[in-house]
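Consider the following assembly input.
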Amino acid sequence: MQRSLDLGVRVVDTAELYGFGRSERIVGRALAGRRQQAFLATKLLPVLPVAPVVLQRARASLRRLGVQAVDLYQLHQPNPTVPLSQTMAGLGRLLDDGLVRHVGVSNYSLHRWQQAEAALGRPVLSNQVRYSLVDRSPEAELLPWAQRHDRLIIAYSPLGQGLLSGRYDENHPPSGAVRRSSPLFLPDNVARARPLVDALRQVAAAHGATPAQVALAWLVRRPNVIVIPGASSVAQAEANAEAADLQLSDDEDAALCAASDAFVPVGGMAALRGLARRQADDTRAELRQRVGALADRAAGDPGGLVGGLLRAARQAGRQAARQAAGGVSRAG
Ligand SMILES: NC(=O)c1ccc[n+]([C@@H]2O[C@H](COP(=O)([O-])OP(=O)(O)OC[C@H]3O[C@@H](n4cnc5c(N)ncnc54)[C@H](OP(=O)(O)O)[C@@H]3O)[C@@H](O)[C@H]2O)c1
């Protein structure tokens, strides 16, 4: 975070949900003495977003962040079970008291965003949604409306969770539960994304940049779009900040749009089946690893409890096999 601020990054986005408050505390420590340099955004997880709860949760976020006010307070998800009027009453009060400078939403449809504005009686500045070359759904309604009405689209997962960096292929998937359970990283979809990643590589080569930087530059070219890439190292944070200086031509933009249009990922039941297969493979691999570790322990301590249990299990297995064979020969 320190390096990003040094390089001119200004939007810092966190949420009470991230690390159950830990992320806000880390952001607060990083911003100590530099609060004025950041446009600070956090999010409320709307479990029961009635006015008193909204007020109490906002104050808790401010305490963790160590600040008097945040620049943007966003509703992390829609909650259709609580009337927007109740939630917005709380947010309006936070605006009036100066604890929050702007209100935003996240993962809202256009209709619900407009309903939120009507309930607040003031602009709801931004909608934070998934937006990248692998998912351009915000272009249908959200972005044109934001551009017409001077609102913002905050693009999350702007690198398609790292898929657009070109680091991954069918044989080298990313690790970590989040991406292993994402349909985007199914082998079929990673293969289908190859022409898009190649198009990014081609543009990147012309600028001495990386595919990830071009993916970000493509987004920030769009009026009223802000990107919040996640970085897993200082080097990535530096590269992402540098992407702000990359100027793509209209032809390059058009080539990337065409490659993005041609990317049609596997979805629906086929994706669910792929994810279930991946889950089963991961579970099998984990079990194998655990049994291997147990066998190692047993080898080091043949007379011990683990060795005894493993011997008993093997014996039971052999007995069951003998009984099954007897049954077969009797049946025969
Ligand atoms: N509002 C919401 O509901 C919501 C939902 C999801 C995310 N978000 C927010 O959006 C932020 C970003 O989204 P995200 O993390 O899901 O996806 P992302 O920004 O598309 O991808 C981040 C990943 O891409 C790789 N990467 C980043 N910079 C790179 C570079 N310069 N070169 C190569 N690889 C690079 C890193 O992974 P590897 O190096 O491991 O490949 C990094 O973890 C999150 O931090 C979160 O704050 C919000």
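The CA atoms of residues 68 and 99 lie 6 Å apart. Ask yourself how this observation constrains the way the partners meet.
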